[in-house]
Every structure is written in structure tokens, then in C-alpha cells.
Design brief:
The protein is α+β, with helices and mostly antiparallel strands and 172 residues long. It has five helices and eight strands; from the N terminus they run βββαββββαβααα.
Amino acid sequence: MANVNVKRVKSSEIEFKDRLVHIQRVTKVTKGGRTFSFSAIVVVGNEQGVVGYGLGKAKEVTAAIAKGIDDAKKNLISVPIINGTVPHEGIGKFSGARVFMKPAAAGTGLIAGGAMRAVLESAGVKDVLAKSKGSSNPHSMVKATIDALMKMRDPYSVAQVRGISLDKVFNG
């Protein structure tokens, strides 16, 4: 795996929108009967290149969502977005989930489904072609999408790492 520069972001400086991706009722069987609780996966983002995900578990739905939002604000990453799309093709993997993202022309829209759509909308991606392969588990899909976004590099960082000018990145 190549070196990936992940830029962490402080949540206190930015206003976020949160999206509930999936909520699940889980059951624990005890001697006294069944105990129900809820698990929520939440994505937060400022729709300008900062996104994060979190998992919250609690006895009540609202508490689980609140815990998920707090957890998501602790796991923020910065995503390079160029003209409303991703800078290049990318593949993300987590567990059984595989995702593929490809830049799209302006006006194409966000062609992605389910959990991928929530992550990409929160990041601020407007035009992208995305495909999910393998598992459709929302937890794995969110983590695979975040993995693909973390691997994205903008031309400025590529030029800086290679020690060449920006126009040489595009013209070889």
C-alpha cells in the first residue's frame, strides 16, 4: 500500500451536517429475558471536503445517534475535491465490501447508492460515478468509501511529493 497522507481536521472549527446511514436493533439474551439496544452508524461532513463516520450504541435511538455524531466528529478526514468531483479513480476496501469511484463530468450528478451516497454527499462531492461490489453491509460500505477517499491525492500534493512543478504532473 502506498503512503497515504491523511489530513486530520478539528471539529470545533467547522459547522457539520449529520446523516444517519443505518440504525439497527440488537438483542442481548440474558437470564431475565431479552435486552434491546440500538446501534447507529452516522456520517458527518461540512460538504466542502471534510467528512467522518461514527458508531453509537445505546438503549434508546436518540442516544445512539447522538453518540454516533460525537464519534464521527472525532474521526474526521480531509478529502480533495476538484471541480465538484474526485481527482482520480479510486478503490476502497473494508472487510467484504469493495467500492470503486471514478470522476465524472460536471452535471452528471452523484451516481452512488446507499451508504456510499451518504458519505459522498457529506464530503461535498457533486459529480461521481461509483459502484459497490461485494458486501452491502452499511458499516463495511461506509468504511470502504472512507478508505477510498483517504487514498485520493490532489495534483498539488503529488507535485510536492515528487518535487516537481504542478504543470509537469499533468504534462509528464
